[in-house]
Amino acid sequence: MFIGLDLGTSGVRALLVDEAGTAINSAEAALTVAHPYPGWSEQNPADWVAAAMTALRQLCEDTPEEMARLRGIGLSGHMHGATLLDQSGEVLRPCLLWNDTRSHDQAQRFDALPGMRQISGNIVFPGFTAPKVAWVAENEPEMFAKLAKVLLPKDYLSYWLTGRMVSDMSDSAGTSWLDVGARAWSPELLAATGMRVDQMPELVEGSDVIGSMRPDLAADLGLPEGVQVVAGGGDNAASACGVGALSEGDGFVSLGTSGVLLAARDGFAPRAESAVHTFCHAIPGAWYQMGVILAATDSLNWLSRIVGARPAELTAELGDTIAGPGNLRFLPYLSGERTPHNDSAVRGAFVGLDIASTRTDLTRAVVEGVSFALRDNLEALRLTGADLSRVLAIGGGARSRYWIEVLATVLNMPVDLPEQGDFGAALGAARLAICGVTGAAPSDVMTKPPVAETILPRADLRAAYDDAYAAFAASYPTLKAMQ
């Protein structure tokens, strides 16, 4: 038996699978996020540990015989977080999360450094780790003076599990400290941003074993001795492992809190100015690129809070079949935007509100606006040479057939819906554990899921959606000029 332990922004999920990757059981524990000031987003790493313990204990209670045969645990988690430890391994302050944008000045300064984009392969976004640590250095110098090690969120859990400070290539690629092409820490980038190599964790591939679970922890949970902990990957790389997106031409679209359009790549082909992320994959010798929007289902959740109806109720009002774009336009920049604008300061808007606008009109505009933003991502990915001809849809938003039909038409490509099951980051982490412990090849373990349905673009409506997308794309400069 193997576990994929996925640290998400809103909770920890533990997925138990057998050696064939078949899901046996799962357990979850919720997390909260603190926003003490605008643009700030923090979590206490002790809460991650408590949630992981809760989820693992639940699996032990529900499936004791299977857990007694546990051989490995793989990790996945949200990227870019700055978890700062002192010399004794104690946490210095709450972790600055991926969607924390307070370090926009530091990010802009680092992005202008010679060689930064060329070596890291990416723009330095405010959400990345390096500018966050620089913010701490400049605003909390007493904390920075004690800094001995920086860990990414999931790597703090592996440290708790094993006592070793280790990270994988895919997660580390989002720090702005990694030479992404060479798959190694860059002394040049570290020195330029005021850091040292000894403050970084040891680097391994995502399918490498870090070590055994601490005996005291295994005994506390009632688990067998010698359970191996595998490095795993950042959440999107792990999700790619979960859906079998390993090679050139493979890709997926994720309609989660944030939105992701990901393309697996066989080589390192960055184009930083496109604001596309170019990262190492969680498997050796591979990379991936992705466009990221910061508010996908988060935009729908925001509307849900405003109008007092659940997101599923809102999308149900749209039906299952599209009939063309609405007259109301939504720009989903509620938390700023990454691809293609690299703009942490811009904020969202409705354009074309009318006294006759209804709740359904607002929902349609949100769905379309998120889809248009993902079209922006597709155009940016094409500039890098990525060639996607179809994608698999995952995430909570993929449960709306209407949304998927809009997306297929806006992207002008087939969108596959997987059969019911676990195909996300937790499964990818479990698959990495299987590979690490058994030595199985990723291509044999990380297969594509069965497709339940393929949603085709609506040829009769494509021109109308293309026109609506053009109007959407033209809105950003005007919106920016107004703010």
UniProtKB/TrEMBL annotation:
Q: What is this protein called?
A: Xylulose kinase
| Any one GO molecular function term | D-xylulokinase activity
Instruction: Give the taxonomic lineage as stored in the record.
Output: Bacteria, Pseudomonadati, Pseudomonadota, Alphaproteobacteria, Rhodobacterales
Task: Specify the Carbohydrate kinase FGGY N-terminal domain's residue ranges.
Answer: 1-242
What is this protein's function per UniProt?
A: Catalyzes the phosphorylation of D-xylulose to D-xylulose 5-phosphate.
Q: Which organism is the protein's source? A: Sedimentitalea todarodis
Query: Could you tell me the superkingdom of the organism this chain comes from?
Result: Bacteria
Q: What is its EC number?
A: 2.7.1.17
**Which residue range or ranges hold the Carbohydrate kinase FGGY C-terminal domain?**
252-434
Where in the chain is the site Important for activity? 6
Q: Where is the active site?
A: 235
